[in-house]
Every structure is written in C-alpha cells, then in structure tokens.
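Journal club prep, shared notes

We agreed each person brings one worked example of a sequence with its structure written out as tokens. Mine is DNA ligase (ATP). I'm keeping it raw so we can talk through how to read the token line rather than staring at a rendered picture. Sequence first:
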Amino acid sequence: MKEEKVHINHPVLLTEKHDSISGLALFAQLVTELSSSTKTNDKLQSLVDYFATAPDADKVWVIAIFSGRRPRRAVNSRLMREWCAEITNYPSWLFDECYHSVGDLAETLALLLPETKEQDQINKSLSYYLETFISIEKQDEAIRKKFIVDSWNQMNRDERFVFNKLITGSFRIGVSQKTIVNALAKIVDLSSSVIAHRISGNWDPSTTSFNDLLSESASITDFSKPYPFYLAYALEEEPQNLGDPKGWQAEWKWDGIRGQLIKRNNELFVWSRGEELMTDKFPEYFILKDLLPDGVVIDGEIIPAVNGKPLPFSVLQTRIGRKNIGKKQLQEAPIAFFAYDLLEFHQQDFREKSLTVRRNKLEEIVQPLKNNAIQISQIINFNTWDELKEIRKGAREMNSEGIMLKRKDSNYKVGRKRGDWWKWKIDPLTIDCVMVYAQKGSGRRSNLYTDYTFAVKDGDNLVTFTKAYSGLTDKEFAQIDNFVKRNSLEKFGPVRTVKPELVFEIAFEGIAASNRHKSGVALRFPRMSRWRKDKSVDEINTLDDLKQMLNTYGK
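Then the structure, token by token:
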C-alpha cells in the first residue's frame, strides 16, 4: 500500500494514510488517491483497499455516490458562500477572485476556512453525514447552518473538501462503474456481471445494507432492476479486418436515448442508460404492459418516430425534461422503442446466449405485436464489407449516426468491451471558427482556461455559435491557456474575452435550428478536432456557411 499520494487536481490537499483512520477521513483518502492517479490498476487497488476496510454502511454509500446516487442538495451554494464569508470575514469580491482562480467551489471553501486544531477534529462516518443531509434537507436554514458550520469546525482540509463536494456536485475522479464492479468482485463472492446487475436500478443507500446488496444469498426484490448495458467501442480500422462478414450482424446506430424496457410482476419499467427511471415520461409505452409477456427485459433505443421512421434527435429534445406531457407533445414528438436485444425471457437471464438466439426470440416477441410503441430495429442485409460501406453513406439521411456491427455468436457483456460489438459512425460535420471567449475548466483543469466559445464571420462581425471543451491534448490546452492569459481583453466574472486570433476546426454530429442561440443554430456534440495553426481569422467559415449546413443536414 502506498504511504502517500499527491492530489493532482487539488495540490494543496495532501493526506498521509494511516491504518487507523475511518469514516469521512478514510473516504477523503480514497478521493485523494483516485484523483491523483491516471492508471486504472492504481484506482482499482485504492478501491479494493477501501472496500476491505471501510464500515459496511460507508461502503454502500460509496457505491451509490460513484454510480450517481446521492441525496438532494441540503444547502445551496449561495448559503455556503455566505457562511464561509461570516467565518473568514473576507469580502465578497475577494471570495469571487479566489473562486475564479481555483475553479471549484468545494475546494475554494476548503482552502479559505481556517485550519482546525487537531484536538478539535471529530471523525464521524461517511454515512452519518450523508444521512444527516437527508434529515435536514427541509429543516429551517438555522438548523442547516449549524450542522454545516459545526462540521467544518471539526474537519481538516481534506475532509472539508470531500464534505463540500458531497453537497455541491460530482467528484470527476475518473472512476467508471466497471472499475467499481471489478473492485467489489475482489472482496465478495460474486461474479462481475452479477455485481453490476445488483448495484444497478432503484435502490436506496440509506435503507440498503451491504449484505442485502451484495451477499451471495441476497434475493432481488426490486422488479424494476435493469441489467448493465453492453457498450461498443468505435471502429478505428477498416471493417475488412473483422474477418468474414457472414459472422457479423449490421444494424443502424440510432440517435436517441439508449434504454431498457422491463416487464416483470405485471408492471412496466423504462430505464435509460444513465440509470434514470423514465417510465412516466413516455406514456406511449404504457400499452406495452398489456402486450408484452411477463418476465422480459428488452434493450433498445428511445427515439421519436412516425410510421416506423426515426425522427431527428432535436424532436426528442422537446420531450426531455418535461414533467407533464400534453397532447401537443404526444402529437408533435411521438416516441417509439426500437428493440435491439433480449436480455431476459420468462424471468431467465438470456445474456449468455448467442446474439442469434437472442435476436430470434426477440423477433418472436415483438413482431406479432404490430404496435407503433415498439418495433424491431432493422437488420441491414449485406454480402461484402464494400457493399456495407456504400450503405453506410446514407446513414445521415436516415437520421442515423452510422452502423453497429455485432458478432452473431457474441453474448451480452457488461460495460464497454472490445472484440464483439463495434460502432462504425459516419464522419462528423466540421466548420472552421475563431475562439472569442475562454473560461477555466473543472477538476484537474480547474487552473487552466479550457472551456471556449467560438464564432464565425457575418460580414465584418463575429457571431458566436457554440462552446467546446474537449478534443485537444494537454500540451495544446496549456499553450492556449498561456495565450488567454496574455491576450485577454475583458473580464466578465470567470469569463475572459480574448483577441480573436486562434482558429479551430469544430467537429459535430448534427445541426438544428435554434431560437435560443444568436446564430440561430445549435450543434450536437461539438468538440475541437484540430487547432488550425495554418489558418488565419480571415479564412474561417461564415454564418451563411452554417445556414447552408442547416439547410443540407438540418434536423
């Protein structure tokens, strides 16, 4: 076990590891170790060490936190800033300057609060703090203030940082659910696939014990529980390298929300890949409770469609986030479920069966229904890879992102695996533009300007049209950060206006009309594909070019 690691994201937060620490301090040590390493094996070992020594109640909460389950915020950011200002007597402008420099509220608070004397520190469990958050969420402000301030006064800096993070937002420590599952598999007597299934779904860490969740004898009483999704890697070579095309199934890669449709105990559940229970958001599916046999789980895509033809993703966006779905939305954005795979049939786990067997059974279930709410995703017939390459060229016209390739004898795995499933996406659209605004990033980039706003030409003016923060190397980000610091023109809080000199190629998957953007367009998945050092601002694209793209590819 390593004696000391430096927290790269937060270089001031250093902790020595002692076997005797427990509770929140042990969790703070875990966060420090996970944040300081870029190696999966190191992260895995840190998690194994934690799960082997932490209290069971804390282990359940760590599984929940790193899989997106945490209590709703008990305190908003404004109150936390006010209480910190009262303790430190710092003026608001100084707090703002510190916050803009650090780039993370949780860390700013941890750095500004006065050091706590060691004899005043009280180490409580992680579960104690999280369950207290739940109990005080709707209490008077005075009660919440007392708990937060008292807690700060009993913590060292590391503990304050993770305590604040539990309230303010995600940790961004680069730990996948697959890594969590692999760590748990080393300390419990269950396979990785079973663990991944157990920790998915709609369970409550405040009422679920570690034994209930992961003991060999634990029974699953949650009928809504989905299976972990099988995800594909991008195909980065010619498909001919995959071998005989007869061994592969090709489907369209639809642009929607990956989901699972579950019918168990005569109840219907719809889950997104992000483990959000979305049943009530899509009333079109309610009829399937009476049509589907009991004990089935179907993997597929939630997409808008009319008469079996998928509509653009922008249509689906009009439904996302709405609490109440009215007749107008049901008519203008009708939702269908395009079924890809069968994961469970008559309460039997079908994932270990071959894709061919699963697909045949799926067709037996879905095709007789003849209902617009669900349909089989089309298999693309082809004989050669060159033939499929020509078919792929028409993907964008079908509102598809490309083609999925699946080995016919493959079983349904957990997470992202190489070898059996590949996504062969169409080439993105691109446009050249100039950076006009910059803002510091978060996590390990909280001290660098890495979030940029871009503009195209409109006559003699520049019109902003998109933001992007990914696609470049660490070296390029460092060079651009240096440019921003030397060429800032104006300051608006954390945002800097910069000289319009740096030209970038922006890649994106789609373009749609938007009345929320000054340019009149919105891009799907924009990212920086190249820093065009070979081009000047005079050579960037124009607003007319964007509008022409909208006319050609608009959705």
